[in-house]
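Task: complex structure prediction.
Instruction: return structure tokens for all chains below.
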Amino acid sequence: ILNVEQSPQSLHVQEGDSTNFTCSFPSSNFYALHWYRWETAKSPEALFVMTLNGDEKKKGRISATLNTKEGYSYLYIKGSQPEDSATYLCAFKRGATNKLIFGTGTLLAVQP
Amino acid sequence: ETGVTQSPTHLIKTRGQQVTLRCSSQSGHNTVSWYQQALGQGPQFIFQYYREEENGRGNFPPRFSGLQFPNYSSELNVNALELDDSALYLCASSLGVHANTGELFFGEGSRLTVL
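Output:
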């Protein structure tokens, strides 16, 4: 059974706080790791697709790291803003398959 | 906006009925994947279509079926609806078969309630 686990399940922070989430996935036969941001009543939107061990990617105040040997990825948000409030999903792709295995997400609420 | 549109946005059915959900992929994308998100879970892969052929299937029974048309739009059909089929159904398009080469572009989903 392939499981992708995300923690924490939910997070409430104040505007300006920095925060991070964890995504754990099977370390064998790794192919790619995706991060998506999903705002309420909208569609999930891709943040990063990461494929190489040690990858670090950044988009504005959001960044992500990848460790394929130990099977985890971190997503960091620096100086959280209310518009960052969303569910953050990670998804793992195993070699020789064409499906993404999603975690249950981390729900972030940023209060002004 | 991803350019992926799904219809209907909400619908209510009763047990035993059949439902068809539709998806228009982003322009130029030849691959469509369908996911089911039940309450409290992450999206679960149902199947993928590439150039009008099913190209991979998740752990869903045969009463879940699909089609992809020459313009790459797609349908998800579910027969003999069960209460547990109540969920948000997400369609995602991509360019190429393998999701690792690029992100998925999702629609906003179709919320199905089975009574």
